[in-house]
Amino acid sequence: MDQQKRRRKKRIKKCRLCEMKVEYVDYKDIRLLSDYLNEKGKIIPKRVTGNCAKHQRMIKVAIKRARHMALLPYIKM
User: CA nearest 33: which of 77, 42, 12, 52?
Assistant: First the structure.
C-alpha cells in the first residue's frame, strides 16, 4: 500500500511534430534537428522526446543525412 501512494501517473507526451503538422523533416533544418540531440551529439530516444514512431524515424534519417553533409557533428567534444 505504501508503494501505491508514492506512484505517480505518467504524463502522456505528445508528438511535437504531429502538433505542428510536419509531413517531412528536412535535413537542412539544423535548428529543429539540434533539439533532438543531447550535449554529446547523440540522438535522444523516442521515449524521452515523446515523438511518434513515424516522426522519430524521419528525425533519425534527417540527422544522419545532416551529419553526412557535415551540417551536424557526429560527436561534440
Answer: 42
Distance CA 68, CA 66 (A): 5
- Tell me, what DSSP letter sits at residue 37? B
Nearest to 46 by CA among 21, 14, 22: 14
pLDDT in tens, the chain (77 residues): 566 667 777 777 889 999 999 999 999 999 999 999 999 999 999 999 999 999 999 999 999 999 999 999 998 77
Coil, helix or strand at residue 43: strand
3-state secondary structure 25-53: CCCCCHHHHHCCECCCCCECCHHHHCCCH
* Cα–Cα dist 57/37, whole Å: 14
Sorted by sequence, the CB contacts under 8 Å of residue 47 that are 6+ apart come out as: none
